[in-house]
């Protein structure tokens, strides 16, 4: 995908999160999500940390060549690889979000930070590389990783928010392309999965059915593709 498309997708992904949370009151921000132990405000804080990481990374140019791309990046974080670390992060995020006087405080900082990250992305060198989490990525690939995480967590935010808007089509397309890359070239997802179902199954948010396993064959053993 081109840099312009990746920037557009990130802008759409972060705007989608904002549209979900912007008008929520303190009670709604304490509704459950699909992430174990996290309410909406907790998960939004996790996303806020990602947007802050984006600002740091985009201001941290690195010499190339890249050592990973937007798909192989996720292979460094296989599903269930370190449950203790995941539990520690989940607990840290809960305590950090709870430190705000009110849950809406997280929303205010997100509303300032996410657009700033998108502007920084638009100003980055499309041919350049950046460093994050021990890897060097091309800028467009880095933006794709941010978009994929935002789309997956957008879907995590909304199960108990029936009026929330879905993520935008461009952002979803980037996340789907990531799952396609992780799945392999010779495996086709089941025909009855739409994009959002695919993302739910690929990230372990939705369990594979017997029919799914039959359609996927040997590839069923690779699920979830990421956590």
Automatic annotation (TrEMBL):
Q: Which InterPro entries match?
A: DinB/YfiT-like, MDMPI_metal-binding
Q: Which residues form the Mycothiol-dependent maleylpyruvate isomerase metal-binding domain?
A: 11-157
Q: Which SUPFAM superfamilies match?
A: DinB/YfiT-like putative metalloenzymes
Molecular functions (GO terms): metal ion binding
- Provide an example Pfam family for this protein: MDMPI_N
Q: Which domain of life is it from?
A: Bacteria
**UniProt name for this protein:** Mycothiol-dependent maleylpyruvate isomerase metal-binding domain-containing protein
Species of the source = Micromonospora wenchangensis
């Amino acid at each position: 995908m081109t840099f312009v498309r990746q920037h557009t997708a990130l802008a759409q992904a972060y705007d989608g999160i904002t549209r979900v949370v912007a008008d929520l009151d303190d009670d709604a921000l304490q509704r459950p999500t699909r992430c174990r132990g996290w309410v909406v405000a907790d998960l939004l804080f996790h996303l806020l940390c990602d947007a802050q990481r984006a600002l740091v990374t985009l201001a941290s140019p690195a010499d190339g060549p890249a050592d990973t791309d937007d798909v192989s990046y996720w292979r460094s974080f296989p599903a269930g690889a370190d449950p203790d670390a995941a539990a520690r992060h989940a607990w840290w995020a809960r305590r950090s979000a709870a430190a705000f006087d009110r849950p809406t405080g997280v929303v205010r900082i997100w509303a300032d930070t996410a657009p700033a990250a998108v502007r920084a992305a638009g100003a980055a060198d499309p041919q350049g590389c950046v460093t994050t989490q021990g890897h060097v990525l091309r800028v467009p690939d880095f933006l794709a990783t941010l978009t994929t995480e935002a789309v997956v967590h957008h879907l995590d935010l909304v199960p108990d928010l029936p009026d929330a808007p879905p993520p935008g089509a461009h952002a979803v397309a980037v996340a789907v392309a990531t799952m396609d890359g992780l799945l392999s070239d010779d495996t086709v997802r089941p025909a009855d999965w739409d994009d959002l179902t695919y993302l739910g199954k690929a990230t372990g948010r939705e369990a594979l059915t017997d029919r799914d396993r039959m359609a996927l064959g040997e590839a069923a053993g690779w699920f979830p593709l990421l956590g």
